[in-house]
Amino acid sequence: MRIVSGIYKSRKIVAPKHLPVRPTTDMAKESLFNIINNHFYFDELIVLDLFAGTGNISYEFASRGTEHITCVDQDFGCIKFINQTAETFKMPIQTIKSDVFKYLEKATLQANIIFADPPYNFTDDDFAKIPELVFQNNLLLEEGLLIVEHSKHTNLSNLKNYSYSKSYGGNMFSFFEHTLP
3-class DSSP state for residue 54? Predict the structure, then answer.
């Protein structure tokens, strides 16, 4: 994987092969960050990266100037890799080793961007729990976005707070926002 833009642009990051991950493709990542760039100033963001895996998305935020990034993943190897990479590049990334659903039930951190990249084989109920817990526990700041990455075979448009989706190859991003009363 490589960092697409920012101060670490074109830097390659090689994750250990044994990690249980499926990193977001460079094409999908670049398109996603073009959308985010049209809505936010990166240096003003608080980012929560759920199911962080290799930290691929967090590195993009850090490279673009985001200084408040928290990664949550339950795999010790993933957390260790993110910590090592963040230290190498002096990136402001904090990690939490936890099951994401348990974390969301107790979290108090509010963020402008919450990015979730759960396993593509999640059930519809598992996918639905992500926005449910985020909004129920008021974790997304008022003008923020919850972005859930999933396969094109998963449809999240029926979930509360759903706004729109974008498709890039086999990847889809579904965007959730606070709804107006």
Answer: coil
Determine how β-strand 93-97 pairs with β-strand 68-73.
parallel
CATH class of residue range 37-176: alpha beta
Please, which residues bridge with residue 163 across strands? Answer: none
For 122-178, what is each residue's pLDDT tens digit?
A: 999 999 999 999 999 999 999 999 999 999 999 999 999 999 999 988 889 999 999
Q: How do residues 95-109 score in pLDDT, each as one tens digit?
A: 999 999 999 999 999
Q: Which residues contact 180 (CB under 8 A, 6 or more apart)?
A: none
pTM of the model: 0.95
User: Domain segments of the chain: what residues?
Assistant: 37-176
First to last CA, the chain: 41
CA 123 to chain centre: 19
Distances (CA, A) of 29 to 73, 80, 139, 149, 167: 19, 23, 23, 10, 11
